[in-house]
Amino acid sequence: MTRRPVQGRAAPDRAPAGGPLGEPALFSGGVLRNQRVAAGLYELLLAVPDAGDPPRPGQFVSLVLESGVAQPEFEGLEGPLLRRPFSVAGFVQARGRRRLKLLYASVGRITRRMAALVPGANIGLLGPLGTPFPLEVPEPILLVGGGRGIAPLLYLGETLACRGRAFALVYGARRGAEMLPAGQLPGGSIWLATEDGARGRRGTVLDVLDGLRLEAPTVMACGPHGMLASVAGWSAARGAACWVSVEAVFGCGTGLCGGCAIPAAGKPPDFLWACRQGPVLPAESVDWERWNASDL
Q1: Can you say whether residue 228 is alpha, beta or left, with left for phi > 0 and alpha for psi between -120 and 50 degrees?
Q2: 72 and 110 share a domain?
Q3: Are both 111 and 176 inside the same structural domain?
Q4: CB distance 74 to 120 below 8 Å
């Protein structure tokens, strides 16, 4: 399917909002910037080919490192480095150039290697993958992000702002040092929550939500699934439509390996493949009780 090229800074505003999703493609991304933006949190900016379908807010790319890491500590690693999924945190197309932004935490072997990437390095990408957040939804819209779950909400917030949609943001983390700077957060109305009390209210996003006098016909959330279960319950009690971007172990990213199966609402043992039927799902399609019990 051919799409008209998007031009200018308001690229997310002009990205297609409906219709069939395009086919994912394999492509290479060149590192333009790779910087630490909070404690353990990094922002990776990539130059990507000016071809194919642009990602929509909520979609992800699957990444494999190709080159660019020369530190001795990574030499001699054995075994295949599988692709790892990362939500699209930003996308801009202007004057025939495309820029893709990813947000990640340096917590494992792959992400530690990513933190060592320097400008000029190349990485392999597959995408865009997964289902996006719906954009034509009733206002006001409330975005709720927990920890690294803020990543897809950055792109979503930018897109909503470009479309002139009314939305607010609730953002939580364990420590204030782990949160993005205020200037990088979307939305005019922003509430923060940290467990250490360093920024915003001491507590969790649910503590903030319970204290809000805010009517939100539509809630869109991303974070740990325990948090998502609570946000889903909070939304249902207020009659608000709720969409969640779920986090699971994505092995292949295309629904073949079954590693990202999560319990579906309805008669067990039905499951949803988070990478293919998600990651964005209506909250009521998930069996939160079964999913939480699987972690016990």
Answers
A1: alpha
A2: yes
A3: no
A4: no
Do residues 147 and 171 touch, judged by C-beta distance below 8 A?
no
Interval 9-32: pLDDT, tens: 333 333 334 456 778 889 999 999
C-alpha–C-alpha distance, residues 103 and 150, integer Å? 9
**CA neighbor of 261 nearest in space, from 271, 276, 270, 251:** 271
Instruction: Please count the structural domains in the chain.
Output: 2
Spatial neighbors of 257 by CB under 8 A, at least 6 apart, are: 251
String of DSSP letters for 229-285: HHHHHHHHHTT-EEEEE-----SSSSSSS-TTEEEBSSSTT-EEETTTT-BEEEGGG
Q: How many whole angstroms separate alpha carbon 79 and alpha carbon 283?
A: 37
What is the separation of C-alpha 291 from the centre of its chain, rounded to a whole number of angstroms? 20
pLDDT tens-digit series, residues 206-234: 999 998 887 778 999 999 989 999 999 99
* Distance of alpha carbon 105 from alpha carbon 112, whole angstroms: 8
Residue range of the domain that includes 242:
141-293
The answer to whether 37 and 45 are in contact (CB under 8 A) is no
Q: Looking at the structure, tell me whether residues 166 and 273 fall in a common domain.
A: yes
Q: Which long-range contacts (CB under 8 A, 24 or more apart) does 264-270 make?
A: none
| In-domain check, residue 1 | no
